[in-house]
Amino acid sequence: MIVTMVFSCVAITCQASAKKAIVYQGSNEIFPNPERGFMAVSSPVGNVPAPPLNLYNLQKLKSRNITLVRRIYLIEEFRHKPLSESFLNMISEDFETAREARVKLILRFTYNWRGGGDDAPKKRILSHLEQLKPIFKANYDVIAYMEAGFIGYWGEWSNISRYGLRENPEARREILFKALSVLPPERMVALRYTHYKRDAFNNENPLTPNEAFNESYRARTGAHNDCFLADIDDWGTYSSTDPQEVDKQKSFLNLDNRFVVQGGEVCNPSPYDDCPNTLQELAQMRWSVLNEDVYDGREILQDWETQGCMAEIKRRLGYRFRLLKSEIPEIVKSGETFSMKFEITNDGWASPYNPRDVEIVLRNRETGNEYYLPVNDDPRMWMPGEIKIVKIVGSIPQTIPIGEYQVFLNLADPTPRLNKLPEYSIRLANKNVWEESTGYNSLLTSIMIEQNSVKREYSGDTFFKPRN
């Protein structure tokens, strides 16, 4: 950490408002962060449904830096009838178990698994989604995103659909839109094939920054590639083996995935899965989530370890924010304006795809009492490879106790049940900043708040509020 002094001049008079300019050290440490990285998988075995989630097994994932579980529900028995109350209760219990284990779930529902079999009529799929709506609403905090599911083998919208749903663009659109409608607007649905998004919205253009995160169905439709690096077309992911057409679809994902999730899994080994090509493709398509160890992909993951790129993949899947420097005042009087700024960069391959709070926290060194200032900035727009300067202006309350206050940056989950849980806050890739007990990132400085003899009024939300 390097500290220098910055002085600001207002009008003609130079004020004694010295600021510390702090330069932060980056870190190459591999550590867990919410909603990104390698995922564990809870899936059927053959055509036998996976058991309910087990708290002990989920808690062990922390030692492997895993915060995501793809939970695949086999609903074969409900092809021609409503989901049972006991099944719906099991899903609710799974959400509670995930919350207790401090992980999030990637959901998929399927009527068949390995070995294939029939899916269900469109009307039944729509009714099942409607049944799931209240459970999703009550538990979306621990849903990372949902894969579209239901159609075809493995719920993957591939191979044979008994009722012709995979081959019918109108049916695909109706089921996708229903899935988006039953999920709360803060969450996304991922499609297996890039061209299915084009067909659903009759739009070949990637999302623009003006469309990003506006909660429209198109802005909430991402991608999952479940045969990553398997062949030139990743087993139909790109709907063509023509290299020019494949490049066109990858270029679409490169731009669209700035604002939507990209996840999936490796499939069979191929000449395409060596480290140089793997890193290039993960970066180009802005991957956030990849399988840890499943089926034929184990050989590929072992190759990445042998070839030496696995550590980079673990670090760069999804977002990886790193503080560069900050300017923070040394002294502020109660009732006066507090202003600071920090510079941050994203060393990951993607940005967060779900909403995220940003706040500055002041903690009294003597009492431990905290005050926080919400920051009007969106980490989902902190793009890979860019430097973001965040400027913050707020008011110090007139009633705040005088004293020395540590300064923190908190990137918390905005949902009420997870907001104060440190495991769901974002950790920065810097040395000596992470406070595990709170989920705060220390800005490695303090400010002195002094008593102001002049009474000042403040209004609105641009002031530090006491943490309850």
Give a short synopsis of this structure.
This protein has helices at residues 55-59, 85-101, 122-139, 169-182, 194-201, 243-256, 275-284, 298-307, 310-316, and strands spanning 2-6, 9-10, 13-14, 19-23, 37-42, 68-74, 104-110, 143-147, 189-191, 221-228, 262-266, 289-291, 321-329, 331-333, 337-346, 359-364, 370-374, 387-395, 403-410, 434-435, 440-450, 465-466. The chain is an alpha/beta fold and 468 residues long. The protein has two domains: 2-29 and 320-466, Sandwich (Immunoglobulin-like), CATH 2.60.40; 37-316, Glycosidases (TIM Barrel).
Description:
An 8-stranded parallel beta sheet has the order 11-10-9-8-7-6-5-12. Strands 14, 16, 17, 19, 20, 21 and 22 form a 7-stranded mixed beta sheet that branches. A 5-stranded antiparallel beta sheet has the order 1-4-13-15-18, with no helix packed on it. The chain is globular, with a radius of gyration of 24 Å. It contains 9 helices and 22 strands. The chain has 468 residues and is an alpha/beta fold. The chain has 2 domains: 2-29 and 320-466, Immunoglobulin-like, CATH 2.60.40.770; 37-316, Alpha-Beta Barrel (TIM Barrel). Helix 2 packs parallel to helix 3. It has helices at residues 55-59, 85-101, 122-139, 169-182, 194-201, 243-256, 275-284, 298-307, 310-316; strands at residues 2-6, 9-10, 13-14, 19-23, 37-42, 68-74, 104-110, 143-147, 189-191, 221-228, 262-266, 289-291, 321-329, 331-333, 337-346, 359-364, 370-374, 387-395, 403-410, 434-435, 440-450, 465-466.
